[in-house]
Amino acid sequence: MTFPEHLPVSRRPMPDEVPSLGWGIMGTGWIADKFCAALRDSTTQRISAVVSRSQSRADAFATAVGAERAHGDVEQMLADPTVDVVYIATPHPNHRDDALRVIAAGKHVLIEKPMGINAQQAREVAAAAREAGVFCAEALWTLFLPKFDVVRQLVQAGVLGEIIAIQADQGEWFDDGHRILDPELAGGAMLDLGTYPVMFATWLLGQPDEVQAVGTRADSGVMGTVTMSLHYPTLAQASLQTSLLGELPNVGMISGTKAMLQFDRKFYQPGSFTLLDRATGRALRYEEKAIEHAGLFHEALEVARCISEGRTETPLRPLGDTISYLDVMDDVRDRIGDRFLME
């Protein structure tokens, strides 16, 4: 395909184009708050109930996010007939068991990344959801954003040509008391931050045939910085990095034989990118407001769309893709000795 005259339009649904579901929120931390705010401010989705280990904490969170009900017991929420789908935002080591509990109750489920601390846990969740016939997805919100649907169309149309190189990084600095530094909570750079560059590469290129990696530990013992190289039987290679020890550029790039696509900073969030033609130097600019985590509502719209259509998986992020990228994450961690205490 020749270089286009203009960029395609995102096909992601608008908030009023999907049915309003009742959401149950499991977990009351930072990401749960951001998710609820995105639903409340940008969609017609309902926050039907929240649950926490204490009724007082559940009550306080329900008031803060505008939930209809607060439960101090998970079974109460799972028995709540107004809850159609549960969003799991508990600590990483709890994701598998919490998801299995929701699935056993016959509820649809959206699980905050990662679906499990390793690929085997994700396989268990996927198998249970498929057997129960309920919708299940990992909340890796990046792939549900409008800009990534535009990228999806460009790649599928062959605008970039054959992909030869991918670069991506995600790095932030965290205070000493942050949970990401806690070995008891499967802390470290990989599950919170490394998911984004690894997802990016495997989304575009699939499973590599060779993985190389080196890592450096933080003072708490968790893996602080990881540099990864993925090699493919085609021309393609991916250079990826993640760190919790300091800020990285947080950019992404796709280089093809015909064109290059360069994302602005925080490539995994809502924002803009530039498409550059290799032959002529002509550039097309995609502009998207950088609303950060206010864009989490797009994953909820996809869940509502799929459930309304009777789907149990989203074609934008099938369960097999989630398992596949966690296989790569496991491979990287094996090579750098990054084993979690609960594995």
Automatic annotation (TrEMBL):
Q: Which SUPFAM superfamilies match?
A: Glyceraldehyde-3-phosphate dehydrogenase-like, C-terminal domain, NAD(P)-binding Rossmann-fold domains
Q: Which GO MF term does the entry hold, naming one?
A: oxidoreductase activity
Does the record's keyword annotation contain Oxidoreductase? yes
Q: What is this protein called?
A: Putative dehydrogenase
The Gfo/Idh/MocA-like oxidoreductase N-terminal domain covers which part of the protein?
22-137
Ranges for domain GFO/IDH/MocA-like oxidoreductase come to: 150-261
The highest taxon in the source lineage is Bacteria
Q: Which PANTHER family match?
A: OXIDOREDUCTASES (PTHR22604), TRANS-1,2-DIHYDROBENZENE-1,2-DIOL DEHYDROGENASE (PTHR22604:SF105)
What are the alphabetically sorted keywords of the record?
A: Oxidoreductase
